[in-house]
Amino acid sequence: MRHIHPVETYGIKFNIRDTSISILTDTKYFPELTDFYQTDMLIISVVFKEPRPGIDHLCLADAEELINRVKPKRAILTHFGMTMLSAKPHLQAEMLTKKLGVPVEAAYDGQTVNFT
Question: What CA–CA distance (Å, rounded) separates 102 from 71?
Fold first, then answer.
């Protein structure tokens, strides 16, 4: 799916065995994201902690909205800017897990993910 960003960016979905995995790259939020990213595992680029109008990147509130609407079995936040890093992404992920009832984790350098 083509995203809304100053340069051409796309999201992608994979089906591995009986699991769908989606990677949502740089974009600003728009409603059609929810339909395209119906998936088991959602990996989201979350650059900002707070919204930054005029800059086409997702913030934590956008990620929360997407996870809440998509209801994946698992969500991983990644691609953090300084405001997210300062907010301690792992704590933000814990907060979203408690709030949404969906396991949310913050990616970290060198992380590997089991898709089965």
Answer: 7
Enclosing H/E stretch for 21: strand 19-24
Question: Where do the domains of the chain lie, and which CATH numbers do they carry?
Answer: 12-106 (3.60.15.10)
Three-class secondary structure of residue 71 per DSSP: coil
Is the pLDDT at 73 greater than 90, yes or no?
yes
CA-to-CA distance for 26 and 7, rounded, in angstroms? Answer: 9
CA 43 to chain centre: 5
Q: Which long-range contacts (CB under 8 A, 24 or more apart) does 107-113 make?
A: 107/43, 107/76, 107/77, 107/78, 107/79, 113/41, 113/76
The tens digit of pLDDT for each residue in 2-22 reads 999 999 999 999 998 899 999
Q: How many angstroms separate the most distant Cα atoms in the chain?
A: 39
Looking from the CA of 34 toward its CB, the CA atoms found within 13 Å total 11
Token reading at 6 = 């100053």
